[in-house]
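W.,

You were right to be curious about this one. When I first looked at the sequence I had no strong expectations either way, so I just let the prediction run and decided to look at it fresh. Below is the sequence, 421 residues in total, followed by the output.
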Amino acid sequence: MTKWYPPENGIRTLENATAAVDLALKRMHQNTIHLLQYHAWDYSDETYLHNLEHLAKLQKSGKIKLLGLTNVDTAHLKLLLDFGFTIATNQICVNVIDQRATRGRMQQVCLDRDVGILAYGTLLGGFLTESWLGKPEPASFGQLDASKRKYLRFIHAVGGWKPFQAVLETLARIAQKHKVTIAAIATRYVLDIPSVKAVIVGCRLSDHNASYLDANAEAFRVRLDTEDRAMISEAQKGLKDVPGDCGDEYRRPPFLTAAGDTSDHLVKFDHNQPLMDAVASGKRVEYSSGSKWEPIAGYCRAVRTGNMIRVSGTTANSPLGRLAVIGGTSARSQTVHILDIISNALKQVGSSLRDVVRTRIFVRDAATCEEVSRAHGWVFLNAGVRPCNTFVTAGLIGDEVMVEIEVEAEVGSADNGVFRI
């Protein structure tokens, strides 16, 4: 198995995907990749859809056996499944303090659609071991390796060192009862989650590898009983929830990465200077998405005048061709993709979803109101704002189209925070 983390450089060709897969095969001395896991950095960039389509073609050709994902949130996992992609696995962080997979929708979607979770972070980079039991919190991030810097941020996110130690002490008591290591108990806890198919435990090459292998194997001979689970559940009550959904740590604050941002993963480019110059000179800015209908009908995806932005009615049109819309027959998944398209349009004119002040939603069937509303609510919860909203039924164009949304935004409208009354 291997992963593909392509840079978001606008390259979305079959030739590029084929070259990446062929390179992986060459490095592994294999004819087939048994599991290739894909990571998308930015859902508003449709490059990830093109790349997954290419990987599906390479799967049919025999170069890939199974197609998986890495750090994909529930909404986009479901969107891809609803569109028709066959996804075998989703590799996400799961451990005794990070319960996003089970407290959110991820587990149920995986169980319903036969997607196996590959759990990593099971031992919190080594924090869930005897080495840290009863020990003081590290004085600084600088003294830690990259893995521990990352997972110390998770510990801070759930409430800090004290509640973490309470969980660790509970695991230690259970480990003593079963005469195994804390790591074995922490691993067994994750393996017992119904949607988890495997755990990934990292280790560095050293003279102690054999002993680590033996210790890890203990997880397969221990069984947690009702009392053990009750003890863990009680200790977890002292924890806060890790913010957001699975994979959000790589896409929005608070970034639970080694660096505390995405600087270790992405190179940022400033493409906005010409745009800012145009805005400063008072020019009207028109952004076209490349739709064939824009020049025919004489419109564009978004218009910016000063700090005001208006985004045209947007549907979940597919850039791939084989189906008309992304999200299939799920109004919720169509809504997620629509708001991804709108997010990208806002980025192109120097804005974001956090600047949105009004949305108008048009649906074909009033029965889809709740699922569309939940998708809309999730997106703007992540953006940290609640725009004004109008929701109506309408005769939408295109038999497959279930939802259409238009947006108004004011650049900088939430820069000084949001005051709710």
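Here's what jumped out at me. DSSP finds 14 helices and twelve strands in the chain. And, maybe more interesting for your project: The chain has a mean pLDDT of 94.

Coffee later to discuss?

I.
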